[in-house]
Write a structure and sequence with these properties.
- It is a single chain.
- The protein is an alpha/beta fold.
- It has ten helices and six strands; from the N terminus they run E-H-E-H-E-H-E-H-E-H-E-H-H-H-H-H.
- Helix 3 runs parallel beside helix 4, helix 7 packs across helix 9 and helix 7 crosses helix 10.
- The protein is globular, with a radius of gyration of 17 Å.
């Protein structure tokens, strides 16, 4: 039997935290390792506990979720963070994803959708609520007046290979293992890909790869 997914829950409403904790604790595949009521606590505890998946609310006192996501991913680049929020607006969704969230789920989702989203994010696969996914696709399909065109410098064969791996939801460590290169080399390639395509995050890169036919929705990362 595989080890349970270690989940950390961040929300400033105690009733929400306790409800999520009770839901996940009732399932053998999850272990809730901690809770936080604001972003500052989440950053400190994520560093100490290093959970497999972090559930992150956005509107919180002291430090909001977007700032917390940014702080966590700056220190732990492969942190797997799932936003769980009531906000579906562009002013929250895009900054959260640019900050490094791998998933974005709305609080009106069903318990089963939450379970599936946590499992996807744990595997390194982006998990985006359909409402948010449609907005992201519109954003990366925006006309030139709103979006910079890709760099005239084309992606190298290796960069295309890296982009396909990113679209599969692989972490830098997993890409390094698969391609037999160092994580530092992977980071450099990912940075070059994002720079050439004028994209701000791995999720945008994954959506770009899907749109351009470099990857398909049938591709998936191996289970951790």
């Amino acid at each position: 039997m595989s080890k349970p997914i270690r989940v950390f829950v961040t929300d400033d409403h105690a009733i929400v935290r306790k409800g999520i904790t009770a839901l996940l604790s009732a399932k053998a595949e999850f272990e809730v390792v901690g809770e936080a009521e604001n972003g500052r606590e989440a950053v400190e505890e994520a560093d100490r506990l290093q959970p497999d998946v972090i559930l992150m609310d956005l509107e919180m006192p002291e430090m909001d979720g977007i700032e917390a996501i940014r702080a966590i991913t700056q220190k732990h680049a492969d942190a797997r963070i799932l936003v769980l929020t009531s906000f579906a607006g562009d002013d929250k969704a895009f900054p959260a994803i640019k900050a490094g969230a791998l998933g974005y789920l709305l609080k009106d989702s069903s318990p089963q959708e939450l379970v599936q989203a946590i499992q996807q994010v744990h595997r390194g696969e982006p998990s985006i609520h359909p409402t948010i996914a449609r907005k992201l696709l519109r954003e990366i399909s925006a006309p030139p007046s709103r979006q910079q065109p890709p760099s005239p410098d084309p992606l190298t064969e290796r960069e295309v290979e890296i982009l396909r791996c990113v679209a599969r939801g692989l972490s830098n460590a997993e890409i390094a293992l698969e391609l037999v290169i160092s994580e530092a080399t992977v980071r450099n390639h990912v940075s070059n890909v994002l720079g050439k395509l004028h994209l701000a995050s791995r999720i945008q890169a994954a959506l770009y790869a899907l749109r351009e036919g470099l990857a398909s929705l049938d591709d998936s990362a191996p289970a951790s």
